[in-house]
Design a protein that fits this description.
The chain has about 140 residues and is of the alpha+beta class. It is built from five helices and five strands. Strand 3 and strand 4 form a beta hairpin.
Length: about 140
């Protein structure tokens, strides 16, 4: 049996003076198409991590988050830079404090692309996208 992908959309209200965002929420069943006992927990955790990242870093970085409690990992990326198949992965049993592990990983992503943690600089972001984006040129390596 093949994987089953269920999708939906939610609206994130970002507050006064900032545009709301419509975000796709997606769940992929485990290989084999078995029922996933972690589905609701995965979706809840992914939404929490995304909200956490949006409150800790400037508006402008669009974080994509996956939670996979069956495999004890969470993954996140900035797809406009990293493409759709590259993620920063947090191993939950080794993470200790999840919020610290997420902040560390997100900060590492921003540092690799030479982007600010405190202010969204559109020129720097567009430059990073032009130089490094895997969506523009698939074969580009992720900066180290």
């Amino acid at each position: 049996m093949t994987e089953v992908i269920t999708e939906g959309f939610i609206t994130e209200e970002r507050g006064f003076g900032v545009h709301d965002a419509t975000v796709m929420v997606q769940h992929v069943t485990p290989a084999g198409g078995e029922a996933d006992p972690y589905k609701e927990q995965d979706l809840t955790l992914a939404k929490w991590i995304r909200t956490y990242l949006l409150t800790r870093f400037p508006v402008g970085y669009e974080w994509c988050v996956r939670a996979d409690l069956a495999n004890k990992v969470v993954m996140f990326s900035i797809p406009l830079l990293m493409g759709t198949n590259h993620w920063y992965v947090v191993n939950l049993p080794r993470a200790g404090s999840l919020d610290k592990a997420v902040l560390h990983g997100a900060g590492e992503i921003l540092e690799r692309y030479k982007l600010s943690r405190s202010v969204f600089d559109q020129a720097a972001f567009l430059s990073a996208r032009e130089i490094h984006s895997k969506l523009v040129v698939q074969g580009r390596p992720i900066p180290t």
